[in-house]
Amino acid sequence: MSADEVSGTSGRDRPVVTGIREAILSGEFVPNQRLVEADLSERFAASRASVRAALLELTNEGLIERVQNRGARVRAVPLEEAIEISEVRMVVEGLCAAKAAHRVTEAESGELQDIGESMRQAVSSGDVLGYSRLNERLHRRIREISGQRTAATVLERLRAQNVRHQFRLAMHPGRSAVSLPEHLAIIDAIRANDADAAERAARAHLRSVIQTLPEAAQNPAERGPAR
Q: Which structural domain range is residue 41 located in?
């Protein structure tokens, strides 16, 4: 059974699902924003049935919630849930880092090293948004190198649910200087083919995220890309 069959969506609904998800991830659609079927139908040149199917799938993913007599809106994830999501990420990201350490090729090792160097330069120049993009690129590449498709699917869904807290964390003063050595430790362990060290480093990074989330939640930023 395909993912579309499980979710109830069809291939023609997929662009609508992807479009709404990306709008949430980019910060274009913000927490508690109403999602009007007619507007979405016009925006994505899709039928109302396709829009409803897409909203249902994204509700199942935890990105959207249905409010009685008010339709659909982007779900606002409370801090307590954001912490729980990060605790799950800590375990799964550790798994992916360990798998990546076993599977990484010489070319991939060089790519990770380049990402780490670019992250150093972004922190040195104060390029917070650039660092944020590199951060996401690093995590995505580790998932891809790991070859753990199930874990990658879980992490992508969790990242989407937590996008607003992730952005606030990225904007938190001094956060990039703290997370840089954590990311470099993950890179070094993967490049050294040390699975245990890679898992420990990934877990340490997410533990740091969890500790910082309550402070970052005070950040008033409401728009922008994910961490």
A: 3-74
pLDDT in tens, 85-110: 999 999 999 999 999 999 999 999 99
Angle formed by the axes of helices 163-171 and 195-216, to 10°?
90
| DSSP designation for 1 | -
> Which DSSP state fits 193?
T
**CA 83 – CA 152 distance, rounded (Å):** 19
Q: Is the pTM of this model over 0.90?
A: no
The number of C-alpha atoms within 13 Å of 107 and in the hemisphere containing its C-beta is 1
Nearest residue to 63 via CA among 159, 175, 194: 159
> What tokens appear for 222 in the block?
């409401």
pLDDT tens per residue, range 41-66: 999 999 999 999 999 999 998 899 99
CATH of the domain at 115: 1.20.120.530
